[in-house]
Structure formats: structure tokens, C-alpha cells
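Form 7-S
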Amino acid sequence: MKKLTTLLISALLLAGAAACQSDVAQTNTAAPDTTEETIGTPAAEEAREGQEDATSEVRRDQLNSDIRAREERDQALGNDDVRADADLAREIASKLEANLPASLLTVEAEEGVVTVAGTVPTQEQYERIEPLAREIRGVQNVDIQAKVQPAQPQGNN
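Output:
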């Protein structure tokens, strides 16, 4: 009976983890949940907090380490040419988060085609989206649906 209970609980946890797996990745918790969702102009305080986190040396090192770890895992398993959509989306979101502070971006990937939506605070950051995304192995095309929206003081939303 104990073995059966353990097996059932394990299966339930595994199914729950698989259900949580998504091909959507975000650069910030305030970013849209999907690339179809639009968000308003971000609040200045929210943008500042996101920028502080993204520009933290510890966070940048963590993001870059995550990217390297995924690539090394794929090479070790012989999956160098095949990239899971969820891995690709997460790697690109990490790359964008580390290099585009105060951005609120959502990344989706499907068979090497990457869609980036959300907002960035400047035109310069907007122009860096595609080159940064293409630095990740497996990206075949980048569809940018993001908009430039400078953050506004909290009372102006």
C-alpha cells in the first residue's frame, strides 16, 4: 500500500510539473503572460526595480550561467542541433533580461522562430532585441512585437 501511495503521489507531482512547463518566458514578473497580451505603460517604480535587478552583477552572472548550462547539457546529451522551445524561450528571456534593464518582455519560441512582445523603455533597447536574441544557438527568426514605452510616474498610468 505504501508503494502504491508513493507511486501515485510521484505521478501526480510529475504531471503537475509537466503541466507548468511553458514555452513562454518573461524578463520580469510584470511582463505580459503571452505575446498576444498587451500591457500599458510601465510605472517608473516598477521599471526602476526591474532595472536594478537586471543590472545586478550577481543576477547577470546567474542569467549567463543558466544559458551556458542549458547549452552544455544539450551538447552532452547529443541534442546540439535540437532545441526545446521552452529552453530557447528561457535562454532568450535571460539574455534580454541581463542586457535590457527595465524591459517588460515576453518570449515565445516555436521551432526556432522566436516572438518577443512587451515593452522596452528606449528605442536603443528595442533595436538590441533581435541581435541579442540571435546570439542564442537555435534561433532561426525573430519576430519583434514589442513597443517602446518609457516608464511613467505612478500617478500617470
